[in-house]
Every structure is written in C-alpha cells, then in structure tokens.
C-alpha cells in the first residue's frame, strides 16, 4: 500500500488561507492504481474464480462510489447471457462494460468470454472513471489487437538487472519459492490493469541455472502469483544449457540427444507450471551460444525448442538481434541478411522478435527492415522501456511518442498502409500468433521505475500492446490523470512536457539521424570520439564517420546499400538525401558539412541549432514543472524537479562535448550566437564512470 504521510504544516497553513501543497506525500508506489477515497460498495460477482474475485477486489478498492450497482461475470453465465449483450466479437480477452436492466435494476455489467476478459473490463471501468467518464452513460467495448503482450525482464539470478536503473531485481530469487513478496502481487495487478499477459523472468543473457529444478520451483512460485491476473511466465533459455546443466557434449540442435534433453526439460517445466508460456532466446549474439556454433541456422535452433514446447502449447520467441563480431558487413544489415532467407522455415509456434530499429534501441532509429520482409513468419516487436540510451532513470523522456513512431511507420511491404503495427498485430499477413515485447524498467525502487515519469513508459507500452493504434498523446493524458488526478493545470503541463521530451533527448544526444555516440560499456554520457575498441562496430566513429569534409553513414548504393533492404517505395525515398526525412538524414547519408537543409541553414548550423534546442527544451520543462509546484504532492514534485536539473546538466554536457568534438573534426567555427562549450575536448574525453548503473559485469 502507498505510504501516506499527513503534512500537518500544509493543513495549518491551509486553514490560514495560504496556498498549500497537497496534504499527502506520495511515494509513487501506487502507479496508476491509486485507491479511491470512498470506494464503490455495490459490487457483485456472478460465477466463481480467483480471477473474478481479483476483478471485484480491484473495483472495491479503486472505483469511487458509482451511481449504479456493478455486476461482473462471464458472458456465458446464465444471469449475463440472458441480457443478450453483443459479446460475440470480443474474442477470448475482449470486454464489454455497459448498463443493462438486471433483476429490475439498472446495473453496470462488466463482462467478456473469459474471466481474464472480465478482469480487463474491471480495470477499463476504473480507468474510465479516473479519466472523467460519466459512469451512467458508459459503454466500453475493446479487444486486444496483439495476442502476446510481454515484458522482458533483463534480471539476473544474483539480483542485479542488466540496464536496470530502478534498483535491484524485483525477484528475490534467494528467498523464493518460500517467500512470496507482496510486491509480486502488486506488480501483477499493475500489469493486468494494462492487459500485459506475459512476463519473461530472466535476462536474455541467460544463465543455465535458471533451467535447474530449484529455479524452476522459484519460477513456479511467481507463476502462481501471476496466474489469477491472467499472466503467464516465460524463461530466457541459454542455448548451451544441455552442456552446462545436462552434461551433454554438444548443444547441436540436430543431435537427437540434445533434442531429447530439451523435450525432457520442457516436460519437467510444464509438470510444475502447466501454463508456462515458453522460451525467449538470444542466440549467436554478443557472445551468446547458438545454433551457428554447429553450422545450423537460427530456424533449426528455434525449431528444436519449438518442438519441445509444442505438445504443451508453448511458444518460442527467437530474437533477431544478431550481429557477428567477425562480420565486416554494416551492422545495420546483418539481422536482415541472416533472417530474411529463413522466412517460411520456422515452426508454427515460433515468433521472431525484432527490435524497433536495426542497431540497438537508440533515441531514434528508422524502423527495422525485417518488418514486412518475412511474410510467412510472425514477427514480434521488441521495444526497450528501460532507457539505456535515453538518460537512464533520471532523464524525463516519454517513450509513447517513440513507440508510436515505429508502430505507425509504413513498411510499404503490401502497398501503402502496411504499417509496422499491422505486421506486429498479425493482420498484414494473417498470422494467428502475434506479439510485442518491452524490456521492463522495473526494479525494487519504491516507485518501481526510478521516477514518476518513467512509470508512464511502462504504462504506454502496455496500452499500445493492447491497441497499437492508440495515440501517444491520449495515453500520456490518461496516464497523467490517473497519476496526478484530474486538475487540468497539472495534466496539461505533464502532457506537454512528456510530448516534447523524447525529441529533446534526440536533439541533445544525436540529432538528424546520428546514433550510437555514447560512452563504452555503461553507455552513460557522450563519447563520439571513441575509436580504439577492438571491433569497428563497437566504436562511435564507425556510426558517424565524421571527417573534415562531412558526416554520416552512407547506406545508399555508394555505401553499404542497407536502403535496399526496405520495400522498393521506401528504398527509393531513402536513396536520396532530399527525400529522406531529415530526422534520419545522417543514418542513411554521408553529407558535406555545408549541405543545405530545408531550414536554409547548413548541415553544421542545423546540428548546432538542434543541440541547442534539446537543452532549451529541458529548461522549458523545468519552468513548466515549477508552475505546478503547489498542485503536485511534495515528494513526487521534488524528485522530478531534482531529476530535471540533472537532465539539464547532462543535456548541456552532451551538447558541449559533442560540439567540441565535431569542431575538432570539421575545423568550423560555431555559428554566430551559439555558446562555446564549457570545457575543452580533452576535459570531456577524460571523464570516466566506472560505477555507472545497469552495466553488466
Ligand atoms: C543492448 C544492451 C545489452 C543487451 C543487448 C540485447 O546494451 O546489455 O544484452 O542489447 O538486447 O542494448 O541483447
């Protein structure tokens, strides 16, 4: 439960007529599930299940006194079926919430085909009320467009979280399965409220121990907590586990002993966790083992695991995030080159999981060319909610706009309107399986995600997973209403800040399509000068290719020709710098510093203007947040204000360090009016952060 402290001083001042801060400190624990101060009481369940009980419990806690009694139940319950509500199109998970006459009384009915659907309906009703809907006139109907809505935890068995900036892992592996921390339940509630229905418990850089009996027992304990909330657990599987855990000589997917080992292992897991979801696999990427070690394809590797879980209706999520340290090809091309020829070769219960862009979760990347390019393969979209490259937990960067950008991107694979969203929801190529994954930003921090505004990214992922056509703007608004209450001054300000925030990060870290300019290993802060790492594609200089004459990665015919991996209409647009969106210009083109931009400025002048815009947007956010000081509880207001100050300092650092470096390369002066960097380049290069968080050891 949320820790509430009465600030008596505020009350006293209030009595004297001074403007006061709201009377309660709020530590953010409740997320979007703040309990109602006088909750509704007339809530009745028809039918019986743990999930229906949970749904009723949520309404009794979070729904404020309602004008009508509420009845919850499955659509085939005789009491509800008699009402003949239009529930047929709702599928397994869709809900309907509307008023009907039941036993002679006007009653709000919350229903759906399964008890999970009813649970989602209950949360939808609460959300509607908190965002200002009139319950007497309510009529909600919604079914998820994407089947598998999954969070990927990059949590390690020792309690650390790879790229985690919100404290230690939520899972206390050491005390599981005996102790089931109540936080596990609160975590499940928060996810169920969004419709998230799967959790991968462990890091994609997986330890083989997660597949041993003691750890299966721990996963089982979590599965038992999550089950009533409609959430299945999945595990990341280490491909070489048959060797490390099974003591076999090989992990070759075509070796019958290896296949038998995975079958027996899957049977063992399903004996303990009958609704186990399946495996997530990172293979032959960044040092992880995989089928290529045995000269087998990714499809052969995935299909072996798929065969092991198929008898139990399990699935395999096989990641396409592969790039070989030995391959001299443009890193942005490698996943497509490897996977495209495998289209049609994967088993029915395999999804290929593809990051939004072809490199690695940068603040902006063009959509991954694999989307739309593998019509016979269900393609899962992987988004990163934790902000590895967008300022960790401290920077305010609302990712709803970034997620929306990739979902709306038009692959043109089957003509206009072939959006990434339609590839991912399975509608473009009519796949039964569909899925979306988000790398979680959750840890043991009291506010779960390291800051109040980071919670919005978890929220936005969940809402877009349910319906990828929702707008980032609408999601920001409804999140702010549930998080801060309905005062339009606070909501409008929060939304305004959120909508500007991601572009600001792009501006101050790498505008106009620049990417991968960060410090080594921990990925904290600027390092565009880094050029001495063993492999070319580890170095920022590989990505920007700046020299005296120009900057940018030529991915056209005269360069790596990565543009040819896109559908012809997109490839044609990207082949010419004049038709390439300026936001992606230097991703695809190497251009002279005096290239004329649409604004009339030279490329160099435009870059400087963007860096400056990024820093000033953060200053603007600080000013806006200041305006609502008296309207937001002191605890969340102050933490946000302090973090904005950190962000401002770091935005300025990114700008200054980057400009100092670019000037050392291009020899150009700063445009008139632009401030000189605070320090010289040597100073920026000398900064060292061996203890930055989230760094895998
Ligand atoms: C990169 C992270 C690394 C992950 C990798 C992945 O830096 O820690 O293991 O992605 O997605 O962004 O596998």
TrEMBL record:
Catalyzed reactions per annotation: Hydrolysis of (1->2)-alpha-D-(4-O-methyl)glucuronosyl links in the main chain of hardwood xylans
Enzyme class per UniProt: hydrolase
Keywords: Carbohydrate metabolism, Glycosidase, Hydrolase, Polysaccharide degradation, Signal, Xylan degradation
UniProt keyword annotation of Ribosomal protein present: no
Record Gene3D superfamilies: Alpha-glucuronidase, C-terminal domain, Chitobiase/beta-hexosaminidase domain 2-like, Glycosidases
Gene Ontology terms for molecular function: alpha-glucuronidase activity; xylan alpha-1,2-glucuronosidase activity
Top-level taxonomic group: Bacteria
Active-site residues (renumbered): 286, 360, 388
GO cellular component labels: extracellular region
Entry's EC annotation: 3.2.1.131
Domain Glycosyl hydrolase family 67 catalytic: 130-448
Family: Belongs to the glycosyl hydrolase 67 family.
Subunit structure and binding partners: Homodimer.
UniProt-recorded name of the protein: Xylan alpha-1,2-glucuronidase
Organism: Novosphingobium lindaniclasticum LE124
